[in-house]
Amino acid sequence: MANLFTLGFGKVSDLIGKLAEAGLTAEMAEEIRKNPGLAEVIVNSLKAQSAFTLVHGLFVKPEAQIARVRELNLERGWGIADACFLEAEKSIPKWPEDKLVVVTLVPYLDDEKQGRKGVERTFHELWEVAAKQQHASLRNDVYDKAGPDKLRLLKGIEHKPGLRWEVIDMGSQRTRSPEHVRSSEKSPHAGVLASAALHPQWVKSIDGENLPYIWAPGYEVCVSSGDLGDQWWYAPRLGFDRGGRKIWLHYKSRDFSDCYWAVPSFVRE
User: Fold this and answer.
1) CA–CA distance from 242 to each of 6, 50, 201, 206, 246 (Å)?
2) pLDDT tier at 230 (50, 70, 90 boundaries)?
3) What is the pLDDT of residues 35-49, one digit of tens each?
4) Of 162, 173, 154, 35, which Cα lies nearest the Cα of 109?
5) Where are the beta strands (DSSP E) in 34-188?
6) What is the C-alpha separation between 194 and 104, in angstroms, rounded?
7) What is the pLDDT averaged over residues 2-10?
8) Confidence band of 172 (pLDDT split at 50, 70, 90)
């Protein structure tokens, strides 16, 4: 980090003004000047804030993600081999500067014996973890028992169990619909849910304006449409109700678009 003295007089003056607005008095400032221990307390308190512990103040750093996924692997019985974690430690990608681009460690789970297939298991497990990170959650009931008859990957995407780093632009293709921009090569699916599970501060910051609501464009959802029968014309959408402090997972016709929504895409080097 740069030395404080590189800020310049104008920015230092502005900083003093902000501290004064927050209630710092001349007497307090003089006490801090005379007592270095107080300055250390203030700086350490600032360092503990998410703006300094998280990437762009939103995203958990890669090393902490690896540790968290290790914990979840044990707690939830995911069965991910230790070799996968060792490889993840060696292959952390460079984090792009764009503040809406996230580097996420995505677990792709095996099929359960006599149970859910890997695609559905991964979907449900990551949503449950993401939901537990927030005060409340809401998921459309079409997902409650979503198996291959209700949820699938976009044609051309293959589910490969293991751990993979994904670099995803969560602000891309804003105002576009998934129908017109998604593809098997560039559209994330489990990575969107893994991001919600591993980066709870990002989820809490989603407001539709500064941080858009997002699609999970690599998935397709089947919904009964009356006389038309079951239609694979929908895709999952994830957002946050800041008033109710609630993460939610809905679905919408894949040709819908507006200015509050982005269609995430992979960032390729």
Assistant:
1) 37, 18, 12, 8, 7
2) low
3) 767 555 554 444 444
4) 162
5) 101-108, 136-139, 151-153, 162-169
6) 7
7) 63
8) very high
CA 36 remoteness from chain centre: 39
- How many CB atoms neighbour CB 109 within 10 A? 26
Residue in the structure block whose two tokens are 């298991």: 121
155 CB contacts (<8 Å, ≥6 apart)?
Answer: 184
51, 83, 197, 220, 244 from 202: Cα distances, Å: 12, 29, 10, 24, 16
Write the DSSP assignment of 168-229 as a string of letters. Answer: EETTTTTT--HHHH--TTT--SHHHHHHHHH-HHHHHH--SSSS-EEE-TTEEEEEE-GGG-
Predicted TM-score (pTM) of this structure:
0.82
Mapping DSSP to helix (H, G, I), strand (E, B) and coil, where does residue 144 land?
coil
- Coil/strand/helix, residue 75: helix
Q: For residue 99, what are the contacts with CB-CB under 8 A and spacing of at least 6? A: 56, 58
How far, in Å, CA of 197 to CA of 146, rounded?
19
